[in-house]
Amino acid sequence: MSQIATFECEVITREYNLIGQSITANFPNSFPDAAIKIHTEFGSRKAEIKGAENYEIIFSPYMCNNIVATYFACLEVSDIGHIPDGMLSINFPKTEYAKISCSNKTIGDGYSKIFEWINLKGYKQKNSSSSSAIEVFYYEDNVDEEKVEILIPIE
Question: Does residue 2 sit within a domain?
Fold first, then answer.
């Protein structure tokens, strides 16, 4: 499945409306276990979100201060309407992102390559309260390796 991990980089501009669940845990010691836990919990509840764009694409923004990280599992919605109990909504306004395609097995390499590309192109990672890095998981049944995109807000 080498075509999944293309490591191609590009710049995209997108707005995201998301509904999902989060987990906060020590960083880095509790990861990736905390991320796997919230993805599993969310997987059993994602049908509660009405009007999702695609139930097989999970958006995982995260915030980290290198002591703790809050990691999300969300679906994209066109309109934030009803929010199921125990979930929350997030709106990221139109933001420019550096994007790389990799896989769940090559995500570490994906991060190395995207930050290398950001520096090479003269961008800087944007740190603001209205944006967040996002991991995008394209779930498929009965496969060992799935497509993942990493989105890093840039300026």
Answer: no
